[in-house]
Amino acid sequence: MKHDDLQELYCSVARTWSVIGERWTMMILRECFRGERRYDHFRAKLGLGSNVLNDRLRVLVDEGILDRVRYQDHPPRYEYRITGKGADLYPVLVALMSWGDKYKNDVPPVRLIHRACGHEADPQLTCAHCAKPVSWREMTAEFEPDAW
Length: 148
What we know:
The protein is mainly alpha-helical. Helix content is 39%, strand content 9%. It has a two-stranded antiparallel sheet with strand order 1-2. Strand 1 and strand 2 form a beta hairpin. It starts with 11 loop residues before the first helix and ends in a 45-residue tail after the last helix.
């Protein structure tokens, strides 16, 4: 199965991965969540060729994850702003970071601080009903008839 075929499957993981599964996409979004918006920053920080960066930004804009906003007329220059749809990917990035902190680094390179209280955050998956933390062992999946 090709990567592009994932978007055709009746599976939320497959369809999501067809959008964010390319290796540079989450790195671009990481920079956006750090407050960066400019093409030149993405290119310099990530060391991407313009063809790869242009393609990734186009997909993120086409998917409604980023907005492309003109900030200069002569010459025309654009910045990329996270949309509500893009902001909803923040927990995905945090989950990836948490896994990397646990299994890929002796010392986590970044700490997330909760602005409201000033303490280190430990984001967790919780039940929407009782607000208790849950793990995959405490979940049951109910599949729709045509789910893949």
